[in-house]
Amino acid sequence: MAASVSGRTPLMAGNWKMNLNHLEAIAHVQKLAFALADKDYEAVEVAVLPPFTDLRSVQTLVDGDKLKIKYGSQDISAQDSGAYTGEISGPMLAKLKCTYVAIGHSERRQYHNENDEICNAKVKAAYKHGLTPILCVGEGLDIRKAGQQVQYTLNQLDGALKDLPAEQAESIVIAYEPVWAIGTGEVATPEDAQEVCGAIRGKLAELYDQELADKVRIQYGGSVKSGNVAAIMAQPDVDGALIGGAALDADEFVKIVRFRDQ
Ligand SMILES: O=C[C@H](O)COP(=O)(O)O
């Protein structure tokens, strides 16, 4: 897989949220696999984050057809096992050969009251079981209007990475998702994305060191589409995108993966 000038391979991840059942998931991944060619995977890492109920089907397809698409879950329990009704554990996700797990998505923070402490425990649970976290951070509209987006987002980062050793932190993926841009069609400008993604890299250098910070991939998320992805990806500290709505359309997702062609 080829890396960019930065040395970081871009990661395009489709977060399906609560969409597509397991049969639709198979059809969708087959469509992606048919459209994507070796040259796409050489330039970009491609991943999907389906609902839990789809993961076994996606695993069977990816394994059986030896697909290069990676997959992961949208959440993980901080616990390994036990009386936690409705939760899905790290060992279960590892058994399904998930590569990634999204942690702290703003919808989890908003609807399930997940705070930085919970995100921190989930990040540690992911590493404990060999899963790579995609840690989501980002400010709401009120914070943005107050001009506090950088400080707010860095505080979330700081909290979620508490006591995380460098050997783990160096492989984490951070997704900067301004909440006001999620599912609204209101995309942050490339400069808005760079401001916070650059600050995230700076914070990683402060918490660890510059070498580690330069390895970490930082995605932008929030109304990413084929028409705006190239300008966002042109920013020096943006190494991919976490795509919601547009990832549900296979043709559109493939165009996003091929952002270089635009
Ligand atoms: O995880 C993905 C983000 O929440 C972005 O969603 P969106 O592309 O539908 O705005």
From TrEMBL:
A Pfam family assignment: TIM
Stretches assigned to coiled coil: none
Reactions accelerated catalytically: D-glyceraldehyde 3-phosphate = dihydroxyacetone phosphate
EC number in record: 5.3.1.1
Entries under InterPro entries matching the protein: Aldolase_TIM, TIM_sf, TrioseP_Isoase_bac/euk, Triosephosphate_isomerase, Triosephosphate_isomerase_AS
Primary site of residence: cytoplasm
Keywords: Cytoplasm, Gluconeogenesis, Glycolysis, Isomerase
GO molecular function, one term: triose-phosphate isomerase activity
Active site: 105 (electrophile), 177 (proton acceptor)
Metabolic or biological pathway: Carbohydrate degradation; glycolysis; D-glyceraldehyde 3-phosphate from glycerone phosphate: step 1/1; Carbohydrate biosynthesis; gluconeogenesis
Single GO cellular component term: cytosol
UniProt keyword annotation of Cytoplasm present: yes
Cellular localisation: Cytoplasm
Superkingdom classification of source: Bacteria
GO BP annotations listed: gluconeogenesis; glyceraldehyde-3-phosphate biosynthetic process; glycerol catabolic process; glycolytic process
Family annotation (PROSITE patterns): TIM_1, TIM_2
Matching SUPFAM superfamilies: Triosephosphate isomerase (TIM)
Binding site for substrate: 15-17, 183, 223, 244-245
Quaternary context: Homodimer.
Function comment: Involved in the gluconeogenesis. Catalyzes stereospecifically the conversion of dihydroxyacetone phosphate (DHAP) to D-glyceraldehyde-3-phosphate (G3P).
Membership in a protein family: Belongs to the triosephosphate isomerase family.
Protein name per its UniProtKB record: Triosephosphate isomerase
Organism: Streptomyces boluensis
Gene: tpiA
